[in-house]
TrEMBL record:
Predominant place of localization: cytoplasm
Name used for this protein in its record: Epoxyqueuosine reductase
Species for this entry: Sungkyunkwania multivorans
Binding-site residues, cob(II)alamin: 60, 132, 156, 167, 214, 239-240
Name of the gene encoding the protein in the UniProt record: queG
Positions annotated as active site in the UniProt record: 132
Positions bound to [4Fe-4S] cluster 1: 186, 189, 192, 246
Domain (4Fe-4S ferredoxin-type): residue spans on this chain: 174-206
Entry binding sites for [4Fe-4S] cluster 2: 196, 212, 239, 242
Gene3D superfamilies the UniProt entry points to: 3.30.70.20
Amino acid sequence: MSLKSKHTALIKTEARRLGFISCGISKAEFLEEEAPRLEAWLKNNMHGEMRYMENHFDKRLDPTKLVEGSKSVISVLLNYFPSETQEDSEAPKISKYAYGTDYHFVIKDKLRQLLQFIQKEVGEVHGRAFVDSAPVLDKAWATKSGLGWMGKHSNVLTKQLGSFYFIAELIVDLELDYDTPVTDHCGSCTACIDACPTDAIVAPYVVDGSKCISYFTIELKEAIPETMEGKFDNWMFGCDVCQDVCPWNRFSKSHSEPLFDPHPKLLSMSKNDWEEITEEVFKELFKRSAVKRTKYEGLKRNINFLKPTNG
């Protein structure tokens, strides 16, 4: 076994030990296929008010511009599928990924440990961890590394577990063995396209971010357009519809990460509890949660928008 293969095997074993469900590796190079897609997406204003998507165009497509001398992109998946969901079927809904501790903290910590392990085993290796807060095209790297295929809802899918997982990367200046992409298994299915409440999946594999419920409830800081009234399917933070209807998510298994478990009160809150939520309760429930991004006022705005009396 070559040294390169030995390092690759060690890294993948350690990634699994740290709780990642899978680990794939690809060569750190310019994402040629993604460039025209990203350009067209931005040109068609599918990022709405997410102006940050226009920044660092070159860095998004070329990891060597992010990490000097980088040779490999190590992609990992971390399951977040919960064992239980919200109890009151009429209560405003939160996307499953936001039930527990903010994934940025959880994954960054694991990736830091993975990098330290590599440095201990291999020697002087430089690298950076990325958890969707930097200009890195996570899904493109995950598919390039063979971790899954890009579904028509633009989420990465695997036959074994569907799509309820986070994607993150470690970009390092170490040469490793590279994986190859897997084939697409969406076939003629259009379940996600048909089910999207706001018709945000404008074509197979193309999501207009500016029409997505997640965009309206998290990214949009001003008032939600009245044209969207009655179309939110009761989502107050994020949206899981395209994943919930995907046949591959029949195979989702509950995660085993205690930090992703929700606050004890969260799942039992009734429709009324949410409508009367105070800032104190918000702070208690979402102390280290991704929901903090929308702030108390933002969540109140979203909950009020769901009320039929609105407008």
